[in-house]
Amino acid sequence: MRTLGSQKELSDFLSSVERRAFKQALYAVRNEETALDIVQNAMMRLAEKYGDRPLKEWPMLFQRILQNAIRDNYRRAKVQSLWTTLLSSFALNSDEDSDFLETISSKQESEGLATPHRRLEQKQTLAIIEKEIQKLPARQREAFLLRYWEEMDIAETAAVMGCSEGSVKTHCSRATHTLATAMTELGIKL
Fold this sequence. Notes:
- By secondary structure, this protein is mainly α.
- The protein folds into 2 domains: 1-115, no CATH class; 116-190, Arc Repressor Mutant, subunit A, CATH 1.10.10.10.
- It is 75% helix and 0% strand.
- The protein has 8 helices and no strands.
- The protein has helices at residues 4-29, 32-50, 58-88, 106-111, 116-135, 138-149, 154-161, 165-185.
- The chain starts with a helix and ends in a 5-residue tail after the last helix.
């Protein structure tokens, strides 16, 4: 258990790096809310995982945690953008409650948004994507769907899956690579 003195030292340390860390994150991600989230998560991680370490170790640990959080944000945004872009072309209706894998509907037909050939092509592509997602190993499929369909962060996904954050990252990375490879082999442009 941490003594009151070390809690104060940790609080003072975090106060001393807060502004610089925010600027670093802001320059990297160019979004104030995202930068604040990154810094807050990095501070919480330092306190939770390394708060019992000596004060002299905190600056290096914090910088590593902060930089990893920034990289994680880039990775998440890149993968989310890829899958959102790929699948958004099929989500022609704007109902927030609808599942984008079920978006080809009579409403679209009535709006005249696609030719019969295009609708058939979309149905076939959606079927291929669903089939490829089903082929993923269970843990990869679960991590992928929680992260990119449900938009959970790494910590939330790890808690739901009952595994470490590193495992979530590994499962997501493997799932994304497998799906991207399958889509490319099947001639679906990502």
